[in-house]
Design goal:
The chain has 336 residues and is an alpha+beta fold. It folds into four domains: 62 residues, Winged helix-like DNA-binding domain superfamily/Winged helix DNA-binding domain (Arc Repressor Mutant, subunit A, Orthogonal Bundle); 64 residues, no CATH class; 82 residues, SH3 type barrels (Roll); 81 residues, 2-Layer Sandwich (Alpha-Beta Plaits). 37% of the residues lie in helices and 26% in strands. It contains eleven helices and 13 strands. Strands 4, 5, 6, 7, 8 and 9 form a six-stranded mixed β-sheet that branches. Strand 11 and strand 12 form a beta hairpin. It is elongated.
């Protein structure tokens, strides 16, 4: 069983208790698809973490309840468990602000929020961001802005995202109609959603497609409709960060050593930014700089290199240099 399956199930129990006010162990077992013995262990773990759970007997039945005002230090705000928890683990999305003037304010806000949680609660919630991640734009720690939607579109998109996150947390299969960019037509997929990723100003879904027997990435903006089924799936373990080896939002291409020489005119700009966690910089005698990366040779990398025009030259691998040259020649033909 994946390491995060247990905490996601326990998170579901907390949300169900808050929404239903009180549930029996049999109710919770039926909702999560596990045994009553497992539910008892989950309740013990949540109580040990500091969540205010207690039981009461009514008409001979034992019910479990969640205290309705669990965060006394935040009583003035009226925050619920779901709201405080969502705020706390949404820090995954704002980590992209790490190099902006908001850095200290963001850190301070989460420190205050964390102060209202017990150490056990924080440890529990620290594992929830496995379901949703953020990927910074290369060259910055700030994510770009997404396109503006009208209120109706925004509401529909928000509802779809909420459905997807719920399906991820509860391991439910989804039937989705998707406006495919590659084929230019509306396609229907049966998928097993694993993770939502905020990257380059957009929200993306990583899901296993049984038809293909592989993980695929979908843009949330291209989802036209979806329905969450009652059918459960066993989630797969996803190692590391999403799109970890790509400068963009591509998945699956193995990383390789990339060497690019930058002209002295732009060397300072290149040195001031973080393009990828693997980067290494080598000063050149002419005042330029060589950037060495361990990344995927994909469309995102080639587009990024081409964006520097004559100020960047690929030194290795030879295959990438040939691809860049071919792109430049194709562009020249458009202006000949």
């Amino acid at each position: 069983m994946p390491r995060n399956a247990e905490v996601i199930r326990q998170w579901s129990i907390l949300r169900d208790l808050e929404a239903s006010r009180r549930l029996t162990i049999d109710d919770m077992a039926a909702r999560t698809g596990v045994t009553t013995r497992t539910i008892r262990r989950d309740l013990d773990a949540l109580q040990e973490a500091g969540f205010p759970l207690y039981d009461e007997t009514h008409d001979g039945k034992k019910y479990w309840l969640l205290e309705q005002r669990p965060f006394r230090r935040l009583d003035d705000t009226g925050f619920t468990v779901a709201e405080v928890s969502a705020l706390y683990f949404s820090r995954t999305l704002v980590e992209c602000l790490a190099s902006t003037p908001f850095q200290e304010h963001v850190r301070g806000a989460f420190e205050k929020l964390a102060g209202a949680l017990t150490p056990g609660m924080r440890q529990f919630l620290d594992r929830l961001p496995l379901a949703i991640q953020a990927k910074a734009v290369p060259g910055s720690r700030a994510a770009g802005r997404g396109r503006t939607l009208d209120p109706k579109q925004a509401a529909a998109r928000s509802a779809r995202v909420a459905q997807l996150l719920d399906a991820i947390l509860h391991h439910r299969r989804v039937v989705m109609k998707y406006d495919s960019f590659s084929s230019g037509r509306l396609k229907e997929y049966s998928i097993e959603p694993h993770r939502l990723i905020f990257a380059q100003g957009g929200l993306y879904l990583m899901a296993f497609v049984p038809e293909y027997g592989a993980m695929r990435t979908f843009s949330a903006d291209r989802v036209r409709s979806l329905s969450v089924t009652e059918e459960r799936f066993e989630p797969q373990e996803i190692e590391g960060e999403a799109f970890a080896h790509s400068l963009g939002i591509h998945q699956g291409t193995p990383p390789e050593r990339i060497e690019i020489d930058f002209d002295p005119q732009i060397a300072r700009y290149v040195k001031e930014r973080v393009w990828h966690d693997s980067q290494a910089l080598e000063e050149r005698e002419d005042g330029g700089v060589r950037l060495v990366l361990q990344v995927s040779n994909d469309r995102a990398l080639r587009s990024w290199v081409l964006s520097f025009g004559p100020l960047a030259r690929v030194m290795a691998p030879a295959e990438l240099a040939a691809q860049i040259r071919e792109e430049i020649e194709r562009a020249l033909k458009l202006y000949s």
